[in-house]
Amino acid sequence: MCRSIKTLRPPVLPEEATEEDIRAAALQYVRKVSGFRAPAAHNREAFDQAVDAVAEATAELLAGLEIRGQAARRTG
């Protein structure tokens, strides 16, 4: 149904994950969990809200991780 979600943190990803990388991973996650590749119109709002929430949580997670002794990147 959908491809695997790739790791978005260094050193696996050589550079910081972009918003596009994070959004693509969030979309793949929501597709997998919901079982919908593209939701019907009556489910679109809930689907899109879930993608937004997962993308936000992913960005927060990545910003807060400490990688091999590097200080956490704080945003906001």
Please outline what is shown here.
By secondary structure, the protein is mostly helical.
Per DSSP E runs of 2 or more residues, the count of β-strands stands at: 0
Q: Please report the distance between the alpha carbons of the first and last residues.
A: 35 Å
Rounded to an integer in angstroms, the radius of gyration calculated over CA atoms is: 14 Å
Low-pLDDT residue spans: none
Listing every helix as H and every strand as E from the N terminus to the C terminus, the arrangement reads HH
Structural class: mainly alpha
Largest sheet: none
* Count of alpha/pi helices: 2
Percent range for β-strand residues:
under 5%
Mean pLDDT: 85
Quick one: overall form? Answer: elongated
Helix content: 40-55%
InterPro entries: DUF2277
Protein name: DUF2277 domain-containing protein
Pfam families: DUF2277
List the helices and strands and how they pair.
Layout lengths: L18 H16 L9 H21 L12
Report on this structure.
It comes from Streptomyces chromofuscus. Helix 1 packs across helix 2. The chain is an all-alpha fold and 76 residues long. Helix content is 49%, strand content 0%.
Keywords summarizing the entry:
elongated, single chain, 76 residues, 0% strand, mainly alpha, 49% helix
